[in-house]
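Record type: ASSEMBLY
Status: queued
Input:
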Amino acid sequence: MNRTKRNLILLFSSLGLLLLWQGIAKSVDIPVIMPSLGPIFRALGFLAGGPSFPLNLLATILRALRSFIIIVISGTVLGLIGGRNQTVSLILKPFVTTLKATPVMSVILLAFIWFSSGSVPLFSAFLMGFPVMYLQIEHGVRQLDPNLGEMCDLYDIPPKAKLFYCALPSLAPWFVAGSKATLSMIWKVVIASEVLTVPRYGVGSRMQLAQVQLQTDVVLSWTLIAIALTALGDLFFEGVVSLVVRTRSTVQRRRVDALLKRF
Amino acid sequence: MNRTKRNLILLFSSLGLLLLWQGIAKSVDIPVIMPSLGPIFRALGFLAGGPSFPLNLLATILRALRSFIIIVISGTVLGLIGGRNQTVSLILKPFVTTLKATPVMSVILLAFIWFSSGSVPLFSAFLMGFPVMYLQIEHGVRQLDPNLGEMCDLYDIPPKAKLFYCALPSLAPWFVAGSKATLSMIWKVVIASEVLTVPRYGVGSRMQLAQVQLQTDVVLSWTLIAIALTALGDLFFEGVVSLVVRTRSTVQRRRVDALLKRF
Amino acid sequence: QEADPGTIRLGVMAGPTGFSSAGLDQPDIDIEVFPSPNEVIARLANGELDMAALPTNVAANLYNKGVGIRLAAVIGNGMLSLISSKGGMDVRDLYGATLHLPGAGSTPDQMARLLLKWADLVEGKDIFFDYSVAAPAQLAQLLIAGKVDYALLPQPFVSMVLDRSPQAAQLLDVQALYAELTGSATYPMSVLVVSEKFASTYPSSFRRVLAGYKNSVDWVNGNPALAAQKIEDLGIMAKTLAQNAIPHCNLVYESASEAKDAVTFYFEQLYSLDPSSIGGSVPGDELYL
Amino acid sequence: MRFSNVSKAYGGHIVFDRFSFALDPKTIMSVVGPSGGGKTTLLRLAAGLIEPDSGTVEKDEGKVSFLFQEPRLLPHVNVWANVEVTLRAFYEQEERNRIALHYLELAEMKESLHLYPHELSGGMRQRVAIARAFAHPAELMLLDEPFQSLDIRLRMHLIKAFLTLWEEERRTTIFVTHDTKEAILIGDRVLCLGDPHEPWMDEYINIPRIARDVHDPALMALEAKLFGLLTRS
Amino acid sequence: MRFSNVSKAYGGHIVFDRFSFALDPKTIMSVVGPSGGGKTTLLRLAAGLIEPDSGTVEKDEGKVSFLFQEPRLLPHVNVWANVEVTLRAFYEQEERNRIALHYLELAEMKESLHLYPHELSGGMRQRVAIARAFAHPAELMLLDEPFQSLDIRLRMHLIKAFLTLWEEERRTTIFVTHDTKEAILIGDRVLCLGDPHEPWMDEYINIPRIARDVHDPALMALEAKLFGLLTRS
Ligand SMILES: Nc1ncnc2c1ncn2[C@@H]1O[C@H](COP(=O)(O)OP(=O)(O)OP(=O)(O)O)[C@@H](O)[C@H]1O
Ligand SMILES: Nc1ncnc2c1ncn2[C@@H]1O[C@H](COP(=O)(O)OP(=O)(O)OP(=O)(O)O)[C@@H](O)[C@H]1O
Ligand SMILES: [Mg+2]
Ligand SMILES: [Mg+2]
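Status: finished
Output:
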């Protein structure tokens, strides 16, 4: 399927979604709760022009990115270890299970003590996202082809090369699936925690304020922005993945070409 | 690694976690915020003996199970379709992205209007969990070995047999990883939504009240129960997986034996 | 001679509880606004706040849990109303209906239970409580939309609903009913608490803050428009909402000794309802400064 | 089965360039050729698994069975089910069991019906793939080096069995091999790939299969020719 | 390299039962045997990839190179990197490039260095695996049917290259094959597996490799014997 067709389908299904909203909004006909598209986009234009708009956006993005990076790194490293070593996996199990189970609400208090209120979204995002990433990688490691591992060990392929040439490429689909799921969750958790803790800047903080003032159209236009952020995150991720794959193949090809020229 | 050793390691690491808590609690020394283990377990004993304990527990379990089943079925079916058919995947993309991004807070109102108030936890669990499951399966389908698919098609293996003999077993690791991540999230989201919406019965409802009344020990003993639920869910899941694998191999073996006896 | 306490940290919650601090003009008082009582409580317990404005029952609860605080003054009296989203309703229509409450264990919830008890009605049989919309703002939204029939709400949401929805009407003035049933003029909804350590280490600074606070309450009540601007600047609530609500919020300043009887009486009522709601026992005289 | 001016390239690498041939129905064509010469590609084109870049592949035969160059067994089911499942679309259970068992017995896999692919030796996997390909009620059989990694006895046994089966029910067959003797003893025609545009060699063998003998001068000449083609650099 | 009373069973299936042999250093042992007879298992035991159930496998040789029965290439890197990466632990970059290129050229893969395994034909994959196994500076070489799925020319070319290399630097080698001729032309000794307890045949060939000729009566007798062993049922 070519690019244009892809984008067309995406466009149409997005339009379909908007139309669906409009239809329901018209039939429900209670603007305080479900405004139609007109007011939402008007509010969107208005707030996008506001002076603190970039600040709020940036604050949320930074929070999401920070927790994303922390989760991806810690989840991947621990997942790699836990997938290979059953003892480590068992030792981590109670911690992961606890993280998986502890309701965010009951740690927010603790988070308040240990961190400043701006860090609470980070903390709760970590709690929600870490198990997803960790389990994903752990599972992926368990699914690695033992035949290839055997080959690598027998041929004394150094650990670094084994990681980059064998393990990581095979883990990539798990890593990508995990990262996407994690990122999608992080946006939500960060915004939800911002709504709860109202840091000075943040999409969630603005939502909370608009909600208290019953400006549903504003709430929804912030929601639209959140959706756009998520979609951009996805796009970015897909871009990075295809870039890495292409770069890898170009680099390998270049090295072969350079080599052939010399010998 | 044998069973006994596994269980021993698990036991010790769980104990380590408890000791860690106790250590921090003792050093923080603010029981309203971080009670030590004594009061928590006392409260646990007390509430476990209460008359409405099974009702609260059951209500939460049923909510979690219902949304889990809905998510697993819908996520798997749509994931299977979306993974094979790029058009469907593109059409679903805006919906999934929206689901992934929409903060639970801003749909609670809609949920309230469309469903009865007891359904809000179900609805939010769906919103949080569905993208995880869907993306997981979609990704898994994309990773299926095209060689095997080619073989199945060429040999006219009927769709049902193809599903059960080829696709599902290959998707199993993705399905298991997705289900575990989803289930772990559902416990949390259901309880968090119960905290927000306080249905008559539910672990989260009890937590909310205890939290408002600053009974941190009670909050934490409910948290312990939630952790136990999650751990049980995990165990159950692992049990089911190993049961399915063993049953399948026994069934296949039996059929071979029966056949050899007859011919 | 008393040492300089440095910056005095006062924690208030977003919402009307924080209104009365808007007129504080002493430069060494740092007002921090928090979205929920939880955060205030954590900081108080932690020693990161010297003073805080809190719901009355939370103060008792904290005190009973061994957090070193004292009640310095009552700063807000009752301001709850039972609203129906359709006009022409009567209190009797509530029988068998569902009453929405913003948050289990909140003051509206406690008040609703008290009234029910006094009326000899049983929740779950004669009337049904629904907590599924915990945020008062969202409840207000649903009332305006007519999706919810009855709700017990605090200010400023009461005025908000009444302003925006022509059908909505107040069915009950909870304060009036409370007075009628108990003989006590009203009930204290929010109080100013001070950490025990601060009060005993810096008594004169503390007295200065209290005096300032009293002036602040008067100023806010007297200048709603100016105060509303200040309230928005502090991040407590939006200007438009605050300005309309200030007259209805029953902001007062009653020193601990003046208010002690009313507060104790209120605690006794809550205790009879559920001892845990105030931490297990009615606090003695030591709570009051 | 007919290729008309078929072209196929991967990237810049041209495998076929206006390549044509017609396959006589119900005969066996042996295909030999250098490694990377396009034998597997030819089979895949014939099966319809890939489309030619230009030209047409016409096919009168209906169902196809393909013995892939690698065994391609279902990893999660045992030997028995690997064969049985490919017959589901065609036979009732009773019939299916009989057929599957028959072919697995032929491939000497009856002792190992309950084993999973990862528990098999390389040759055993190949045997399961053979049983599967032979059992399938196809009108066109595409066999990509079917007898590789088998020991001599099995190889001879399976070649004999294959020819017996084939005489019972003739099906159009393309048989890829690296063994010139096999190619000559089995094929009604031997095609030697090597040039994208036309085969290096394309000869019919008009001696009846049962009468063929490696010491027959005609066949020896043919083998020598093939050998010469395949060993020139 | 010495097996002493090695036993190995999978489930109930006994592959080796108190099986012993000693390998002379710096010689080539050809191993033939029926499919499923334990050839791959023997190599895996020798490499230390599996442990015997009882008995011991002693090994004086250090590094091992193993040509697996399947190519086992890294799917995400190209042909070039598949070989180069196995040399990282031993050589500096310059040296590594030279060696990898040399062996890939030997396997006639120089044209396809940039292709990925899924873009290769079956024989090409096998050639990459051969290049990798030969390039590895091992003292013990374990080759599991190295020349399968290659055409005759390549086969001859690689056998010659292998022997030349081997004469340059002798390494202890176990060479598994199904081709009795290959076994006899290459091995210093031919072992025919078949019985869990002892080999069906274990003969030394004392004719120098260069002087060997398939028409030599001694070798013909040996081949006939092997053939007889492998074709009896
Ligand atoms: N992992 C395993 N689990 C169970 N059985 C196994 C396993 N590996 C090998 N076997 C069995 O061991 C026996 C010997 O296998 P091996 O792979 O050594 O045979 P081989 O001589 O290499 O055969 P081939 O020539 O077909 O490759 C076979 O019967 C096989 O079924
Ligand atoms: N998917 C692909 N992508 C790129 N190139 C390919 C692909 N498949 C095959 N080729 C190339 O096409 C050529 C022919 O491949 P093919 O598999 O038909 O050879 P073959 O005759 O079967 O060889 P062998 O005897 O080694 O199996 C090879 O050069 C190979 O590199
Ligand atoms: Mg091929
Ligand atoms: Mg083998």
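Annotation: The mean pLDDT of chain E is 91.
Annotation: Residues D 39-40, 69, 144; E 121-122 surround magnesium ion (ligand 3) (CB under 6 Å).
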